Amino acid sequence: MPSRSPPAGRPCAAKDLMTDQTAAIGQLLKNLDHTMITERHRLRRQLHELRKHPDEAKLAQWAQRVQASCDQAAARKA
User: Fold this and answer.
1) Would residue 4 count as lying in a domain?
2) Is 1's pLDDT higher than 70?
3) Staple partner for 14: which of 1, 25, 59, 63, CB 3.0–4.6 Å?
């Protein structure tokens, strides 16, 4: 199975994609591939809940958690 690694220099762009919420949610779902495997289900479920009930503050908090998970996964790969 080919490795899904983010583009060089951009390990995870979750925090950059919060401008257009509907388009951002689709891209954020794709970014979950770069998070820790143990956190993916919980993060995906939370994102689907945010899609149903949009809240910018909660989305910002969620994006921070995703970024931390992406950073942790990248550190483990290194």
Assistant:
1) no
2) no
3) 63
What is the tens place of the pLDDT at every residue in 23-72? 777 888 888 999 999 999 999 999 999 989 988 899 899 999 999 999 99
Domain count within the chain: 1
The pLDDT assigned to 12 comes to 63
Nearest to 27 by CA among 13, 38, 41, 7: 13
Rg (CA), the chain: 12
Q: How far apart are the first and last CA of the chain?
A: 19
Distance CA 6, CA 78 (A): 13
Residue span of the structural domain in which 46 resides:
17-77
Question: Is the Cβ–Cβ distance between 6 and 12 less than 8 Å?
Answer: yes
